[in-house]
Write a structure and sequence with these properties.
With 222 residues, the chain is an alpha+beta fold. It has one domain: Glutamine Phosphoribosylpyrophosphate, subunit 1, domain 1, CATH 3.60.20.10. It is 31% helix and 36% strand. The protein has five helices and 13 strands. The strands form three sheets. The protein has a five-stranded antiparallel beta sheet with strand order 11-2-3-12-13, with helices on one face. A five-stranded antiparallel beta sheet has the order 6-7-8-9-10. A three-stranded antiparallel beta sheet has the order 1-4-5, with no helix packed on it. Helix 2 packs across helix 3 and helix 4 packs antiparallel against helix 5. The radius of gyration is 17 Å and the shape is globular.
Length: 222
């Protein structure tokens, strides 16, 4: 991409986290948007909620170009509604993840002045149970059995490697997610402005934590 053009592309930052617990799944993301972060510098473009609702059973975290992620999610929602109207049946979680995977596979291989870059973690429940999937920018689809951190993983992976166990509970997982975000926000300029944490259990998706941090500078003289 042309460097002058890249400076004006809004990106989601980003740190998104998925954790498979013994009694459910955690999905979380920070709130910072940036312009063309690079060389340890991020130009803040604003804030955004990076956990989006596909339907009442499935949610997704977004990383990459803001316009790319919004477009893909919008198309996926429309496709799901059409499929469910035609079949009179609910579309399963894996099928939704596969649909998103196919879209990303095609988008990134389409010649463009602005390459389509989008990265998703998808979690939810259906008749088969609960699940967590990752869709990489190249369209690669993978079911996650433990944990995944996208966007700014280097600071977070060390914490996960030490503290994650397959027996972790949702309550413990929420604490772990908060620790990862707080550690990463202090080291990655593209990550910040708070975070949102959701839990997924069979029949229930719930927002359990939301921490917002202001960008305004504090006047220490007062």
């Amino acid at each position: 991409m042309d460097k002058n053009l890249e400076k004006h592309v809004v990106k989601t930052g980003t740190l998104t986290v998925g954790i498979v617990c013994k009694d459910g799944i955690i999905l979380a993301a920070d709130n910072r948007q940036t312009y063309a972060s690079g060389n340890a510098v991020a130009y803040i473009a604003g804030t955004a909620d990076k956990v989006s609702k596909i339907n009442e059973r499935i949610i997704v975290t977004t990383a990459g170009g803001a316009s790319d992620t919004r477009k893909v999610i919008s198309h996926v929602k429309a496709e799901i509604r059409l499929k469910e109207l035609k079949s009179k049946q609910k579309v399963g979680l894996k099928n939704v993840a596969s649909l998103m995977s196919n879209m990303l596979f095609q988008n990134i291989r389409r010649p463009s002045m602005i390459p389509s870059i989008a990265h998703f973690l998808i979690a939810g429940y259906d008749d088969t149970g609960i699940g967590l999937y990752e869709v990489s920018p190249d369209g690669y689809l993978q079911k996650i059995e433990t944990y995944r951190a996208t966007g700014a993983p280097f600071e977070s992976l060390g914490i996960f490697d030490v503290e994650y166990t397959p027996k972790i509970t949702l309550e413990e997982g929420i604490k772990l997610a908060k620790k990862v975000f707080r550690a990463t926000m202090g080291r990655q300029p593209g990550v910040g402005d708070g975070f949102d944490i959701y839990t997924i259990k069979k029949g229930e998706i719930k927002k359990v934590s939301s921490q917002k941090v202001s960008n305004e500078m504090v006047d220490k003289s007062k």
